[in-house]
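Work package 3, deliverable 3.1, input record:
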Amino acid sequence: AQKITQTQPGMFVQEKEAVTLDCTYDTSDPSYGLFWYKQPSSGEMIFLIYQGSYDQQNATEGRYSLNFQKARKSANLVISASQLGDSAMYFCAMRERETSGSRLTFGEGTQLTVNP
Amino acid sequence: KAGVTQTPRYLIKTRGQQVTLSCSPISGHRSVSWYQQTPGQGLQFLFEYFSETQRNKGNFPGRFSGRQFSNSRSEMNVSTLELGDSALYLCASSRTQQVVFPEAFFGQGTRLTVV
């Protein structure tokens, strides 16, 4: 079974509007972390935001926030006030305690295009 | 503070050759992980090194190997290259091996093309 599912291969948003990128996950491990990364066409994976499974509040980092719904096993990324520079591939990833170490499991990604 | 440095950025190799990729983690980071990214398979975990020891290995053939040096720099080697090894190889560094520690920073990757 897929551990990380991103159901939106592509998303379009107008500049200055908010956009939500979906991510659902599957794990039986009670201790895990969820990550979002941005990958521009240059290839580098840029860390955006992190949510731990025991965190009580949703994570926020500037214009990025993570809508964490533990019971639904979803960790959607919300980007507010989209900018042209936000156009990129976005990946949701998970790290589980059982796996040990720093191993990340990634979803298939969502290609976001911000239109002027 | 310098980021994760991967060299070279681009490589073209012929089938059957071998290749070595290098990754220098952020200063103070002791964990280095490698990932392969292809259009068909997405991002797949190769292996992880911590304090010169391989701690995790993904589902890749033995042609893929790696090592880590005492200064935390890591190399990965692919022998007997196949066309399917063409990919972006990404290295990530983390400060500790703690499972849910948030910091996992990636380099810009090495784009390998096998012809």
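The CA atoms of residues 84 and 114 of chain A lie 5 Å apart.
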